[in-house]
Write a structure and sequence with these properties.
Chain lengths: 175, 175, 175, 175, 175, 175, 175, 175
């Protein structure tokens, strides 16, 4: 029995998914879907760096003791949540650039990825793909010490490969 | 006697200048020079959002009670200091995008200016001009309730106008 | 009784909101809403830098004597209004980049924020958030010398924090 | 005898070259060189939109009566001089984006070229090429009503073509 | 009676408006509208640099002899028409960056404005505003030697100023 | 009888069209249409660099022996398929940047075109035009050793020229 | 005794650092320095996606069995190595955008971070900071199941905080 | 004996390398070096689209009859040479974006790659790598009908692979 099975039984979240606003949900739900598919216990919270800075600090400072092993943080525009969370805890932070209204997430991406030396945020693609991939990367990290999870991940990727292989593009007439 | 004169006498800083790293000094000293020219009492601190988050929180939460009337914050890359300071205090924050090594401050600018509704950072140009202008804007804000300072500001700008008027471009021969 | 209360009674605007065209209204109304919420007397004008340059000069040169303590200026594209207003008056100018049709406000942002040393424009985010934040920053600057207004601002931000705290993202099943 | 010959004799400038700062000279001298080559009477002035706005207005409002037939305006960063000059006079304005320190003139270009409908600025390339070309375009416009100048322009371009034709790239061995 | 009146009577076009494709019409019609408003005789042609290069060369080489005094050229994407036309004739060329499907005209703008020293294209804003302004700039250039046209242009701009002055933004309650 | 006629008869594909996902079809079908118009035998496959890397390797390593003379590869976002295919085979690769959801294909373009020295990918425009042009370029390359195909290509381009010549823009009244 | 201590004793690398060219070393050595500081056994290889694709495949397919728990991959320009490695192994990949000659790493960043859903690459800042942070993030991931390593990481960050706190900016005279 | 051997004997160039200015040589010589290494007969010319448009037309219209099987065209800024050459001949054109002074070749890249449907330019990376790769792609296209050349290309790439394999990054101490 792996640690994840134990944790699942206990219901203790291993991954914290946080986002700057409820409006980020449409993007961030893609991370949730992945974690659910892999049975990773997780929790969901709106933690706004700018409107709830003290809550953010509290979240960050308690993360280790609460047993979180990864934090997936999504934010848009001047997206400070992932980087600040990374500053507040040694728990690894995985950042998701949420698309912004006018700059389509270019601002979000740069605000998240361009962290200074010493305080990393693992950054993923802008939008839905990035949210899903942040969760998949968390799974991959956890799978390095959990052989059952690794099997699940390998199976997941095999299915993904098969799905791609099954794609057909409209028939054409060879002349 | 205006509040500034009193404050100067007392030595209590009215403006806090903070920056994410000592390496930002070459840019931020342009803000200091302006405040000194106008005799605005100020203080200088390195406050790294990412490496000193708790100090940053403390700085922000004490700002009102310490009597700060403006905070000038400079940072580069994923520049979170100005925005986080704005989240921590109602004291107005003036952000300076410090040029970054590879993206020349485009990342700094977007990380500072694209704040979400509710938590403003007044943002200025990338680099030296932005640092000086942040300070000049602080002076202008203070001058709205300090007629002596307003006189100084008007005089400063008159000198500036005169300096521009005195500029000559190399003579040429009219044919 | 604070100066704002007095001014309100007198109906004298303390803040001038100007924009380059009536088409900027959908963005700039967000600044108006904030000022109204805080009870800051203000005035609204279309002042086009390019189509009404002489009116713009007049507006700028009279701003101090008319008692304006802040000017919020919105413009899009080659957005010259905020910078020119800053050149014409020592009253602090707060610039709002209005989104442009093809470049989404990137041109507006750079045209406003990249002011040369000596003539600052405090710049905010592109679009609605920027308009609201320009007004909030004006409030914050005014609040530094008005304890009643500061209380209002702190209360506003507390409500904002509570609203963020109250956000819930769709429930999920912890496994 | 063409108007240009007359004007040359009288020494009355037909083209006003203005720039926001003496530091723009290294770029703008390329415009001067072209006008001198074609014998177009011109004048040179530093007219800072931001530090000398009233002088700028005066320059613009007098341009027609002073007999200017073109204004070449160079500026960098939040480059407002060309657009404001275009707002102040029906004399056609030719804008030169001067390279900026951090954004290499991208801000200058957008600030100049993205003018709203109704107030055009003819914009040219960033830097030296743009300055020379602004002057060449002025020459071309003037040449449409001055057959002598047209001959000169055609000759100039023929020389240019010959110079390009004379270019040789390092010899290589055909195998 | 000015040359324009004469030309109008004769119906000889003074301005050639060309575009790379009929699909550019929605943008370029804004240039036509301006020329019609000012009564400038003009002609309209699709001249594709890439699909009709020899026609383009012919158009360019005949431009002077056909009496054209300005060419307004619109194109999108890798927009070569304005620059090539400028290479083919001393008649001044005014370029309009037509918005492109994916890059919104950023490619069009750079392809048109970044001409090398020696072959200028006067460039205007991306899209509708740019098309109208190219035509207005042509009018301004022509007006430098046509006092009647100058009067019309000044009147046009006065109407424009009045229209801007007449703009009202939604009423608000001054407190 | 040229090689193409022979190949057509035999039905052996000379061109492989591959794309990273079936969702790229709407863009890539423009390449197919061109090849069909020219009667170039081709094949269509979804080959995902990221989800089917081993299939991709197989495709690349067999390309020469299978007789492919060109590979047209379309992909979006972090678009690795064209470059990896170029790494796997000496068969020339023609890359099509498929527009991405948030960055409109700017990421696709840079991921495809910025290949290091030694492993080229011939890159075309973002989107539909790029797909069609990749195929046309393949045709042009093949036509260099196939006089019949060259005739077809010349005829195709003549028709294209005629179509452009036939374009009319809405009539206007010459004044 | 943790797994890391065991692994260190055995000398088996837990982290593979790969880069597209030896010229990437100046950037990637910053990742090495971090791993050495934390005593994480690692290996260094040049694995060029474009010049050594089959070696890359081999590296990827063996990564799990060889016991790698993380792969740090650096590449510049059309940077495909991190994404392809992620396609080849469930071992988590951490990507470092190496600055490119002309686009300063913007192409590298987009080529690495914009991965499609299903195949994540954890991406870090362009250049030296990104390389160091990729390694720090690997350490943080490993520390989630290694309490000794977590202690080291916390100590490392404390030293980092102290170093930032010790920074002083040049003294100034409070007036 | 292949066609290339014959051509070499005859000295007839199969590839035309053209560039907009002699100043492009430092970039374009990288294309020459590749062609020389493969023994492809070629010719070198400065053909400026903007300063020598009629020569450019002549070059393009004669390309087929002169036996050219590929044209490699380099240009910078508003880079029209590759696209115009593609418009003038069915001979396939391979474009090289030459870095520009202020925009580092971003303008060159967009001006070359964003060609409209119907007139393709195969585009390569900005600068030296792009020039070399354009030539390598030409070689690859020619090799599809020349088995000797294909052998040479495969050998070239093998050497390239070996060179990459031989790269070592500084030794490190496995702990």
């Amino acid at each position: 029995m792996t640690i994840f099975t134990e944790a699942s039984a206990a219901g203790t979240p291993l991954v914290g998914i946080i986002m700057g606003s409820a409006s980020d949900w449409d993007i961030m739900k893609n991370a949730v879907a992945v974690l659910e598919e892999f049975g990773i216990p997780h929790e969901l919270n709106v933690v706004s760096a700018h409107r709830m800075p003290h809550d953010m600090v509290e979240y960050g400072t308690q993360a280790v003791d609460r047993g979180l092993r990864a934090i997936i943080a999504g934010a848009g525009g001047a997206a400070h949540l992932p980087g600040m969370m990374a500053a507040l805890t040694p728990v690894p932070v995985f950042g998701v650039p949420v698309p912004s209204k006018y700059l389509r997430g270019e601002d979000s991406l740069l605000s998240i990825v361009q962290m200074p030396k010493g305080v990393p945020v693992a950054t993923f693609a802008i939008g839905e793909a990035g949210a899903a991939n942040a969760a998949l990367h968390v799974v991959a990290c956890m799978a390095t010490t959990d052989s059952e999870l690794l099997k699940k991940l390998i199976a997941y990727r095999c299915r993904q490969t098969e799905a791609a292989r099954a794609m057909v593009v409209p028939p054409h007439v060879v002349m």
